[in-house]
Amino acid sequence: MAEPGRRNLITDVAGLRVGNAHDEAARTGVTVVLPDRPALATVDVRGGGPGTRETDLLQPSTAVDRVDAICLSGGSVFGLQAADEVVSWLGEQGRGFAVGPWHMPIVPGAIIFDLAAGGTVDPVAAPPYRQLARSACAAAGAQFALGNAGAGMGARAGRLKGGLGSASIGTADGVMVGALAVANPVGATTMPGSDAFWAWALEQNGEFGGLAPVGRATEADPDIPLDSRLGGNTTLAVVATNVALDKGQAQRVAVMAHDGMARAIRPVHTPFDGDSIFVLSLGEAATTPPTALTVARIGALAADCVARAITRGVYEAEPLGEIPSYRSRLDAGSGRADNENASAGREE
Questions:
Q1: Least CB-packed of 18, 89, 259, 326 within 10 Å?
Q2: Is-contact 212 185, C-beta < 8 A?
Q3: In a 3-state reduction of DSSP, which class is residue 309?
Q4: How many CB atoms lie within 10 A of CB 212?
Q5: Phi and psi at residue 223, in whole multiples of 5°?
């Protein structure tokens, strides 16, 4: 038996906090994932246009195996500076990899493109990302907002408003897995001619509206909005578990977790996306290391959590300017009519 944790957030994994900060005028933001102590981490990048920082050191063959934070930001290349401020903030706390008298905080990160979200702040002349990163660190806690929050503020998911989402799952024997996602894909999170999410079958406790598809999904040309700025998309995720993994095992979980993106978004991992998944292991080293079967189980749970987190990010989002949200479109009734018409056609 497996069910969501008490919060249904990535912070159901003990020893983890999340902080958000965003600028409504700039329509952008920063999300920081902060472990209470250095955590083993790795990453797997599948998108064709990633924007990342400090990801090479997370590979299994490298010497550094612990990080002090993960920083996710809007702003494309300008947003990469957010992680610099997280490094400064952590350094002020005495956190980081000890080298002589110095402490070197390790903060990998990744960015989404949200510059076309209609913000009124020039990211070149007045980039807000350093201050947003500092504010996100200060705000970090077990509870945090979803939707138009943090790095999800200016996110767009295909033709709908994207956003920040999170989910967790715990098992009867004490394994806890959580995921956090910034949903900003070029692909669609809903099925053709329907308001049902691609990930509808994975929903827990009505977390994204409870709308099931009517009949089977029809074959359709991939819904890529050509009127959007192709190349300005990316879905980012952080997976965490309370099981102690080594870097090779965590890397396998990251690879498996990408299946969750494919369960929630179609098409995914396109040339226009920078899809990346970080994995954090917060467990204490066990006398008996996890088996390959345990790793496979965690990877399977992680994939479903990623799919749910992406979908929650879209479900919880609010409209932003001319970008409609999932719930605003549903309230308008247009999607329901499409769903009913598609159902009637199949019944005939």
A1: 259
A2: no
A3: helix
A4: 11
A5: -85, 85
Q: How far apart are the first and last CA of the chain?
A: 40
The two tokens of residue 68 are 């002090």
Residue 136, both tokens: 């996100």
Q: What is the per-residue pLDDT across 288-310, written as a single tens digit (0 to 9) for each?
A: 778 999 999 999 999 999 999 99
Full domain range(s) for residue 174: 2-347
Q: Parallel, antiparallel, or unpaired for β 163-171 and 109-111?
A: unpaired
SS3 344: helix
pTM above 0.70, yes or no: yes
Continuous segment of H or E residues that includes residue 88: helix 81-92
- Residue type for 63, please? A
Determine how β-strand 276-281 pairs with β-strand 236-241. Answer: parallel
Q: How distant, in Å, are the alpha carbons of 53, 108, 160, 218, 321 from that of 189?
A: 27, 27, 9, 15, 20
Give 6-35 pLDDT, tens digit per residue: 999 999 999 999 999 999 999 999 999 999
Residue type for 77, please?
Answer: V
Q: What CATH number should be reported for the domain holding residue 140? A: 3.60.70.12
Q: Under DSSP, is residue 1 helix (H, G, I), strand (E, B) or coil?
A: coil
Give the amino acid at 268.
Answer: V
Q: How many domains does the chain have?
A: 1
